[in-house]
Amino acid sequence: MSKTSVKNIQKQKKKAKRTISRATVSRIQGSTSAVRKRLKKEAGKARATAKA
Q1: How far, in Å, are 12, 31, 35 from residue 45 at the CA level?
Q2: Any alpha helices (H) in 1-52, and if so which ranges?
Q3: Alpha-carbon distance 31 to 14, whole Å?
Q4: CB neighbour list of residue 10: distance below 8 Å, 6 or more residues apart
Q5: Please, which of 1, 6, 26, 30 could form a disulfide with 35 given CB 3.0 to 4.6 Å?
Q6: Predicted local confidence at residue 6, as pLDDT
Q7: % pLDDT > 90, the chain
Q8: Are 30 and 36 in contact (CB under 8 A)?
Q9: pTM of the model
Q10: pLDDT band at residue 30, thresholds of 50, 70 and 90?
């Protein structure tokens, strides 16, 4: 059965309608070393601009 059948499209639309609206993520979250380093750098930049 194809993924783009009419029934499946309707099912996806119903599921999309039921989702809870959430605020968009301002920063990429994660626990890998590269992401943590990037978050740390962004946090430092945010602190510096807040101080100034």
Answers
A1: 40, 20, 15
A2: 6-18, 33-51
A3: 33
A4: none
A5: 30
A6: 93
A7: 46
A8: yes
A9: 0.44
A10: confident
What does the pLDDT look like over 4-29, one tens digit per residue?
899 999 999 999 999 988 888 777 77
| Amino acid code (one letter) for 15 | K
Which of 42, 19, 39 shows the shortest CA–CA distance to 31?
Answer: 39
Distance CA 37, CA 28 (A): 11
Q: Are 39 and 27 in contact (CB under 8 A)?
A: yes
Contact 15, 7 (CB under 8 A): no
Spatial contact of 28 and 38, defined as CB atoms under 8 Å apart: yes
